[in-house]
Design goal:
Blueprint (H helix, E strand, L loop, with lengths): L3 H23 L28 E3 L23 E3 L24 E4 L4 E8 L6 E7 L6 E9 L9 E2 L4 E5 L5 E9 L3 E5 L7 H8 L12 H6 L25 E3 L21
Antiparallel strand pairs: 1-11, 2-9, 3-8, 4-5, 4-7, 5-6, 6-8, 6-9, 9-10
């Protein structure tokens, strides 16, 4: 008769190995992290169809919700970029719903930000689209996280390889998405990076041609530390506590006029701000 203790031990070991392999592939923690070696040529393609973008939130802004708690102590700020707005709302549940394309306003295309592999697909807290991790082939410690995406059928599977600039999904014409660049340090938490800090010069050309500089899209840590935000409340206490003086538009850079303006919407500045 086989030793049951040995069998249980082997089964337990197998489960732990499988679980460890899953976590390593999904989160892939960095054990020895050198901040000076963060890649500056990670993003080789804009993940959202450039011609359809009308606004992008600034890194470390007050847009959306708190997305921080980083390895080096940054808290209470949004360290990702929101692109466009979600406009459709279920009038009963008050939850966002997907907008539908028309002949004049087709769906907005979503692209792979670099050569990589889809390593995770999960449901969103707000029921619109999927949250997708794309891990970089060139820098496998880093991944791009795309929010609220409808994946094309051939990419709706973990393990699928993607090429930089390849269309992998869509969002509706009246919908927005978020995008973050991330890595994970073992026992220390996430590294959160700006799309515009990690973008190649070639990928930034459409923005440069409009007169933008990378820093237009980034609030520095020094500024945000000196001008802290207030967090708490909302879902999982991730909301920002804003007073009546808060100007939502101040957290965004506007590339063009809103194709779906709200009646009486406040005018915004299109293009780079003069400093």
């Amino acid at each position: 008769m086989k030793n049951p203790v040995k069998i249980i031990g082997l089964v337990t070991l197998g489960i732990l190995v499988a679980f460890g392999a899953f976590i390593w592939n999904w989160q892939r923690p960095i054990i020895f992290f050198d901040e000076s070696k963060i890649p500056k040529n990670l993003v080789t393609s804009m993940p959202v169809e450039f011609e359809r973008i009308y606004k992008i939130s600034k890194f470390r802004s007050e847009a959306g919700h708190d997305y921080s708690n980083t390895w080096n102590g940054e808290t209470c700020r949004s360290m990702k970029h929101y692109i466009n707005d979600g406009r459709n709302m279920d009038q009963v549940t008050r939850m966002p719903i997907r907008s539908f394309p028309t002949a004049d306003q087709p769906n907005i295309k979503i692209f792979a930000p670099f050569d990589g592999t889809i390593t995770d697909i999960s449901s969103e807290q707000t029921p619109i689209g999927k949250q997708v991790h794309v891990r970089s082939n060139l820098y496998p410690d880093y991944f791009g996280r795309l929010f609220h995406i409808d994946l094309l059928p051939e990419f709706n599977k973990v393990g699928v390889k993607v090429a930089s600039g390849q269309q992998i999904g869509t969002i509706g014409p009246k919908d927005g998405t978020d995008f973050s660049i991330e890595a994970n340090i073992l026992f220390k938490g996430p590294v959160l990076l700006s799309l515009f800090d990690e973008m190649t010069d070639a990928a930034f050309i459409p923005f440069a041609n409009m007169g933008f500089k990378r820093e237009d899209f980034i609030i520095s840590r020094e500024y945000r530390d000196a001008h802290p935000l207030k967090c708490g409340g909302g879902h999982n206490n991730e909301g920002f506590l804003r007073d009546q003086s808060y100007d939502f538009n101040s957290d965004f850079i506007f590339l063009k006029e809103d194709p779906f303006p709200n009646p009486g919407a406040k005018p915004v500045h299109i293009g780079p701000l003069q400093k």
